[in-house]
């Protein structure tokens, strides 16, 4: 999994801290704080963006929903702007946008 950092400086800092964590110099709790500080959040997607991702993959809402492990009604709600994806769903949508459905299949 490729990580997205806020900047190159944060990437370098995070890589150094991962090395320290791997060697046991810092604990998981501290590493989580560095993850939160250094890693960029998943970008917000508009309803049009979500529809474009699905259409680019040439799948129906139902098939797209199965890949994302959500209901077809939820995908429809996202595409109509009735609801917004968050958390894991937003991250999965970002991965599919960047790498295609094969990345999560």
TrEMBL record:
Residues 50-94 form the HTH cro/C1-type domain. It holds the Pfam family HTH_3. Transmembrane segments: none annotated. SUPFAM superfamilies: lambda repressor-like DNA-binding domains. Keywords: DNA-binding, Transcription, Transcription regulation. It comes from the Bacteria. GO terms for molecular function: DNA binding. PROSITE patterns: HTH_CROC1. This is DNA-binding transcriptional regulator.
């Amino acid at each position: 999994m490729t990580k997205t950092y806020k900047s190159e400086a944060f990437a370098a800092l995070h890589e150094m801290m991962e090395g320290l964590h791997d060697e046991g110099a810092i604990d998981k709790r501290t590493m989580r704080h560095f993850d939160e500080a250094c890693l960029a959040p998943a970008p917000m997607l508009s309803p049009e963006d979500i529809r474009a991702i699905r259409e680019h993959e040439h799948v129906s809402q139902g098939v797209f929903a199965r890949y994302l492990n959500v209901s077809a009604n939820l995908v429809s709600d996202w595409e109509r702007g009735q609801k917004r994806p968050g958390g894991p769903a937003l991250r999965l949508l970002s991965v599919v946008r960047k790498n295609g459905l094969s990345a999560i299949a």
